What does this fold into?
Amino acid sequence: MCGLFGIFPEDAAQTPDNLRLRKSAFSIRYRGPDASHILTEPGLGLAHQRLSLVDTDIRSDQPFKDPTGRYTLAYTGEVYNFRSLRSELEALGISFRTTSDTEVVLHSLIQWGSNALIRFEGMFGLAFVDRSMRQVLLARDRFGMKPLYWVQSPTKEGRAFLFASEIKAFEPWMTLQPDINSVTAHLLNSGEPDPGQTFYNGIQSLAPGTCLQFDGPDKIKISSFFRLNDFFDPDEMTRLDGLPTPEIVDEFADLMHKSLAAHLFAESPVGAFCSGGVDSSLIAAIAAAQHQNLPLFHANVKGERSEVDAARNLARSLKLELHVTDVDECDFIDMLPRVIRHYERPPSEPANCTPLMMAARLATDSGMKGLISGAGAEELFLGNPRFGRKRLNDGYRRLMRRVQAMSGIGSILTTKRAKKLVYDHAKQREPQEISCHHNASPQNPRDHGRQWTLDRMRHPLSELLHLNDTMGMAAGIEVRLPFLDTRLARFSVNLPTRHKLRLSPFAFGNAHPFVRNKWVVEEVANRYVPRNLSPRIKNATQTTVFQRLEIRPEYFRNAHLRDLIGLTRTQMHDVITETAPDLRLRLLLAEVWLRCGLDHQDEGREVARLRDHVIIWPDTYHPNPSIRNKPTSTAVPG
It folds into this structure.
């Protein structure tokens, strides 16, 4: 929920411009359409957009001050255990004037300082300001469910320290420039990004589980209050190793019930995403038992991979109302400029963005302010099909790396001229290290699945959380993720792999035959979801539209990307006409981001350009890249 922005001018006597503060707030207004407030004084400016789900009264609007006026909080997210924290604080003699989690978070920080952060169960990006000392503590939740960006930079009124929920909020104060290293990493598809890196030059993303203490110009201290490795618990591993299977299933079911009870608490309407898969079905089924008349929302990606029948069957079995929005293939192209403007970088999985945004918009139009989601189960319980065959795949990759390292062989495997053009020019500006190499984690050598789980909770999960936050907030919807309850995550990380991946002669998935992934999730789902629905295999990708695009070279005439990566017109033409489809798609996404995210190209005009120069071919058609002069309509050829 909510959006925030703050600025500390280097000159403590300077009062930030009121109009620019309002522009920053307006740029992220969709994050909090219920209230907008600013605070401005010498040496400090704060802006906040509120989406109210708990204590919706104006008394809980932000920025929120303590009774003395010394401390102020600007905060986005939900801390689900705020009631137990409030009881602790009341026992210490602290009185409250609201029933919000915001006030509890503020007094927790006053009472315990940064040590309070590890106590918070939920999602948050916050700025805790000591106005008398001109200090601010920024912090982001342990998973990174809520974003928080910062920069120390010259502004139009002098040097300043700025922070915000979205990068576009910085624009009234500074000129945004692309970060060539991030664009390079995107084009080369070169692995995990640095958790602190963004696609904007000089702007940093606060890493999950991290806090930043700002005590004045150039006095910045960044530290971690939680690392994913902290989930490893040898005693918990031993305990779970010794539990009989029925008790494992019972414990997981109990944890799910407790998590749903916390995530459903709100004074505003909350619904649930219903994708048709086992994760969202389990969430909906348990939530329906705790929450009367829970509405379900589904984005029906039309075509052979549609999941709408499964969603309807689930809604019928739970006696819940299902709201459906249809997603046509042309929507993926027409909405691309809007998606990327909110995503604030080229998405790595663009096919997932449009359905989520459209489902969130449907929920808003139906009066919702929050939606619970089954996202996160794939990462915590090894739902990705590749884990069923991971050891075989890992061996193959090791062999291929050795082959490519041999003199002469590597160049032969990458001789496509177009790919080499991008590679050579981008590599000139690539830093020595694009990817973030995480520190080695403790690992039970007998059970590799625990490390696999932790690895999935790094980059793949961070991308998933960014997707859910940006696409949900674009419609003013707070996406809540019950699978990312801290107790559930600790249970998952320490759980033996045999309870996540299990051999079964009745598992017939094409991607991983005879292996049931997310085993314990399916076992609990069998208790709440009809057996004909819970074991079904959800389509991993609802559409292949981005694999069936023909992107005509004319789209890249006068391309911003060409100047950024240093290609001539001829080289850019060769890249587009000769490169493989996956690189061509990444070039398209980067160009749309440069046009719409940085240069503010009119959305309608950009959609028209895409329609003129991008064709979606039907599933049955496999275009030959060498064929030229095809029709230029986005309509599917008949």
Q: What stands out?
A: The chain has a mean pLDDT of 87.
